[in-house]
Amino acid sequence: MSELEDVRGQLEAVLMVVDEPVTVAQLAEATGADARQVADVLSALASDYDGLSGSPRRGFELRELAGGWRIYSRPAHAEVVERFIVEGQTARLTQAALETLAVVAYLQPVTRSRVAGIRGVNSDSVMRTLVSRGLVAEAGSDPHSGAVLYETTGYLLETLGVGSLQELPKLSNHLPGLSELAGMDQTEFNT
């Protein structure tokens, strides 16, 4: 794999997980590539996704908006995307989503990195799902790292049939490490 192909793959991977536009400088820092090379690759990716390089037009597009780049679904497919999301609202939560929701509920407000640190796996897509379903919401930013904090919503309480989080079952004293998790400094998860 050439260096250019490697940068292209890295950019695509990062762009698939961002939830807001990211600047060329941020992408250059993330990939370790030169900003000019990143800008060129982004333009090439946008053209490729639009079918301008001979490949089929994709169902998504790469747009430069608000000073940054992000992948979006094409407006032509809005109806099917909306139907999928609305129907997905009634789908059951996955085990990963339930685990993530439990971490947020018991340790809120919490950052994505802390959730990932506790679960031992990247939880970004699961957090996006929980936010899109209205079960979790942004609750400001961490004063030390600036990372977004998340908390559960009133809709979650309504869905669970409880009036407050205090009505949730107490964490078992027999589960190892939970008291240490509750007392850990948030900055330990932001590395």
From TrEMBL:
SUPFAM superfamilies: Winged helix' DNA-binding domain. Gene3D superfamilies: Winged helix-like DNA-binding domain superfamily/Winged helix DNA-binding domain (1.10.10.10). Keywords: Cell cycle, Cell division, Chromosome partition, Cytoplasm. GO terms for biological process: cell division; chromosome separation. InterPro entries: ScpB_csome_segregation, WH-like_DNA-bd_sf, WH_DNA-bd_sf. Coiled coil: none annotated. This is Condensin subunit ScpB. It comes from Citricoccus muralis.
